[in-house]
Amino acid sequence: MLRLMALAGLLLAQVQSAAGEPLQLSAADFLIGEWAAPDPGQGPNKGGTSSIQPDLQTKILLRRDHVVLREGGTMDLMMPIYIDGGKLCADFYDSEGHAIHYAAAEIVPHHRISFVSEGPDVAPAFRLTYELIAKDELAINFEIAPPGASRIFKTFSSGHVKRRAGVN
Predict the structure, then answer these.
(1) Residue 168 covered by a domain
(2) Residue 134 and residue 49: Cα distance in Å, rounded?
(3) Which residues pair with 16 in a beta bridge?
(4) Most buried in the list 13, 35, 156, 158, measured by CB within 10 Å?
(5) Residues with Cβ < 8 Å from 44, sequence gap 6 or more?
(6) Residue 54 belongs to a domain
(7) If you ran DSSP here, which 8-state letter would residue 111 be given?
(8) Higher pLDDT, 57 or 149
(9) pLDDT band at 97 (very low <50, low <70, confident <90, very high)
(10) What is the model's pLDDT at position 133?
(11) Containing domain of residue 139, as a range?
(12) What's 40-99 look like in SS3?
């Protein structure tokens, strides 16, 4: 508990949001922790673990995952989450060579964040949503929209992760 209180005090990278109110990285503090997937969810992933921790002297949150794939094998990924130009942003990289640049499209501080990829209409779009559904449980939904201006997203993978007991 003391650790979380100290982190909340340190995560003060303030910038101005579109509404003119300060946007802080601490709006994403509900993501901090060591997580595990208790069930495989929907999509290509069978399970795995995730760590989301402050890094670079609390200027970013760094997500690192080790994912077990349904078809066999594993995948590792990392995703720094940071404030840039008054927006909450994230950059996704995985061991399969994928890279996605996100900006937050919706933020309910300490509860829900939806990141949407930035890019031209001629490329697919991606949306990644985290929602705190219980004290120690997150729902995660990853959606893809085909190229075009309409951007109709469809779920590619979804599931829940639970905070790992005794690790945080």
Answers:
(1) no
(2) 18
(3) 22
(4) 35
(5) 69, 70, 71, 157
(6) yes
(7) T
(8) 57
(9) very high
(10) 95
(11) 2-163
(12) CCECCEEEEEEEEEEECCCCEEEEEEEEEECCCCEEEEEEEEEEECCEEEEEEEECCCCE
